[in-house]
Amino acid sequence: MGNPFVHVELMTKDPVKSRQFYAQMFDWKLEEIPGMDYTIIQVGEGTGGGMLKSPDSNIPDHWLPYILVDDVVSATQKARSLGAVITQDVAEVPGYGYFSVILDPTGAAFALWQAKERK
User: Fold this and answer.
1) Measured at the alpha carbon of residue 4, what is the angle toward residues 94 and 6, in degrees to the nearest 5?
2) Domains delineated in the chain
3) HEC states along the chain?
4) If I label 53, which of 3, 13, 23, 93 is the partner at 20 to 30 A Cα–Cα?
5) What was the pLDDT predicted at 1?
6) pLDDT, tens digit, for every residue of 27-86?
7) What is the pTM of this model?
8) Smallest Cα–Cα separation from 83: which of 112, 100, 105?
9) Spatial distance between the Cα atoms of 85 and 27, rounded to a whole number of angstroms
10) Which pLDDT score, from 0 to 100, does residue 119 have?
11) Which of 115, 5, 23 has the alpha carbon at shortest distance from 63?
């Protein structure tokens, strides 16, 4: 199947409380990334994810799925042409890849992800 879900991210107002809950709820390994205020979620088999403090306290806590694409720039442009709203234009995660955040025409949020080529 093309374009699988590759990452799921929790945007939360209270990362400490969220980490405590999910660490007790599931058998996930949570790894805090020093200096980034980011927690990697390793689930073993299946799609992992991350947790971070929501940049906007007015937005309710939510999960955001990331979908793999070959070219994040052209996929973002395609989404726009199909009536989507781009809430975060293409940005780089240094050393890892590129992403954008999109609201589909019904208002559902998702992100596109293009992994950086490893040498």
Assistant:
1) 40
2) 1-65 (3.10.180.10), 69-119 (3.10.180.10)
3) CCCCEEEEEEEECCHHHHHHHHHHHCCCEEEEECCCCEEEEECCCCCCEEEEECCCCCCCCEEEEEEECCCHHHHHHHHHHCCCEEEEEEEEECCCEEEEEEECCCCCEEEEEEECCCC
4) 3
5) 65
6) 899 999 988 889 999 999 889 999 999 988 888 999 999 999 999 999 999 999 999 999
7) 0.90
8) 105
9) 36
10) 61
11) 5
91-116 average pLDDT score: 95
Q: Which amino acid is at 19?
A: R
User: How many other C-beta atoms are found inside a 10 Å radius of the C-beta of residue 37?
Assistant: 11
With a CB cutoff of 8 Å and minimum separation 6, the contacts of 89 are: 76, 100
Q: How far apart are CA 117 and CA 15, in angstroms?
A: 30
Cα 59 from chain centroid (whole Å): 15
Structural contact between residues 115 and 97, judged by C-beta atoms closer than 8 angstroms: yes
